[in-house]
Write a structure and sequence with these properties.
Length: 553
Amino acid sequence: MSEFRPWLKKYPHGVAANINTEEYATVVDLLEKAFTKYAKKTAFTCMGKSMTYEQIDRYSRDFGAYLLSRGLEPGDKVAIMMPNLLQYPIALFGAMRAGLVVVNTNPLYTPREMEHQFKDSGATAIIIAENFAANLQKILPNTAIKTVITTSIGELLGFPKKVVVNFVVRNLKRMVPKYEILNTVSFTEALAQGKKFQIPPHTGKPDDVAVLQYTGGTTGVSKGAMLTNGNLVANMLQVAAWCKPFFKEGEEVALCPLPMYHIFAFTVNVLSVMSIGGQNVLVTNARDIPSVVKALESHPITLITGVNTLFNALTNNAEFLKLDFSKLKISAGGGMAVQKAVAEKWQQVTGCYLSEGYGMTESSPVATSNPYDGSGKIGSIGIPLPSTDLRIVDDQGNVVGPNQIGEIQIKGPQVMKGYYNNPEETANAIVDGWLITGDIGLMHEDGYFQIVDRKKDMILVSGFNVFPNEVEDVIAAHPKVLEVAAIGIEDAKSGEAVKVFIVKKDKSLSKDEVIAYCKENLTAYKVPRLVEFRDELPKTNVGKILRRALKDA
C-alpha cells in the first residue's frame, strides 16, 4: 500500500483500514460457514416465496452434484442466464461447490452477443430461463454447450403460484417464444436427479478463477474478466467491513432490484449480505417500478442497492412517496454516476443518505464508497475501501497531487487476474498491479475522489474538454427534467458540439428553456447546441444510460 492515504482519517468509527484476505480461501468456504451459522434464517425471497440458508444449502448441493453427473469437471465453464429468481443462487452455488467456473450472462443479450460470450468462454453447460431459449437455439450449434437446463419464471414458487405465474408469462404476456432444443432438462428435474449423487471433495484455491464476468461490451467486443476466489472474497470482506458499524448479523433485509448476474448485485447483495446472514428480497424486473415499490412495502428493508435511474424513478413515483422508510439504514448507488439532484431528492424523501460508490467489473467491483454514516460528499465517489489504494496519473503515467485531473487507477486484492484468453488486453489494463480504469477524475486533499468523466465520452469543443457528466448534472437539476444524456456530435466549426437527449417530467418544457437554463449554469462552449426530447432513453438491463446507442442512432 502507498504511504499517502489521506482518506483513512475519514473512515467511520469501527471500519478497519485493512481486511484479512486469508479469512476464507474460497467463496465456497464463505458459503459453507453462512449455511451452517444462519441455517434457519431466510436467505432469499422472490415473488412472495422464501428459502432459508439451509434450503439453499441442500438444493445447491443437489444441483452441483447433478452438473458433475452430466460429465462436467472442475474448471469447466457453466453459463447462467436468467433474471432475479430463486433458481439463480441455487445454480450459482451449486456450480461453485462443484468447482466449476460460472459465466454470468445477461438474459437480454442478442443471439450474436450470446454466441460471442459462449464461444469466448468455452462454456459447455448452461442454465437458462425458458424466455430466452429461442435465442439460444439459434446459436447453440456454434458453441461447445452440451448440457442445457431450462427453468420457468414460476418453477420454484410452489403450488398454485407456480401455475398462475407460468400461465401469465407464457399465455397472457407471451414472453416465451417457441423453441426446440433436444435433451433439455428442467431445473426441478436436475434437483431431483442430483439427490442421487454426491459432490466429491474439491479443494479450491484463492487464485482459482471462480467467475468469468463479461464487461458490458458497450465500447466494443465484450471481454471476460477473470475474477478469482481471492478477488471475490476480498471484495465481499471489504464491503462487509464498510457496513459493519451499521449492521447486525442475521437481522438485515436487503432489496435486490439489480440483476444478480451483474457484478454490483453479485458481490454486494449475494455475497456480502449472505456473509452477515441477511435476507435478499429479489426483484425480478426492476424496470417495473410498481413491483419495486411493492417489495419495499412488503418487507422491512434496511439496505437498498441501485443505480441513479432507479432512485430517480422511485422518487418520482407517487406510491413510493407514501412508504415508511424508518428501517432503511443504507442506500448504495453504483453502476453509473449518481446525480446530485437525485441524491438530494432521495435523502429528502427517505431520510436516508444516498451513498455513491465506484468500481468496475475488473475490480469485483467495489473500489470506493461514501461512508454510510452520512458524512460523505454528494457528487463524489467517496473514499477507497479497506485494503484499497487509488491514485491519479497524468498522460505520461506520473502520479499527480490533490485537485489535479488525471486517470484513476486502482490497486487492491479485488483487482481481477486478467481477461480470459486475452493477454494483450490484460497487459493494457493492469500495469504493475494497478488497474487502468479509463476514468478521468481527481482526488481532493481529504482523500475523497471525484469522477470527471470517461475518457471515451469526453467531448472536444474547439479544443476545450467538455465532460458529459457535468452537463447532465446541471440539466438534471432542472425541475421539469426527468432524465438526461449528453453526447458529442460532429460540428464543422468547433469539431464537436454538445447534444442532449431529455425525457420530460413536465410537458411544458421547451428547447429554448433548456438552452437558457444551461447558459445560466455552464460556460458557453459547454452549452448544448442541440436538444432532442425523447419518451425514454436507451439503457442497459441494469439501468445505465447508453450514450453510445444515442451516438450511433
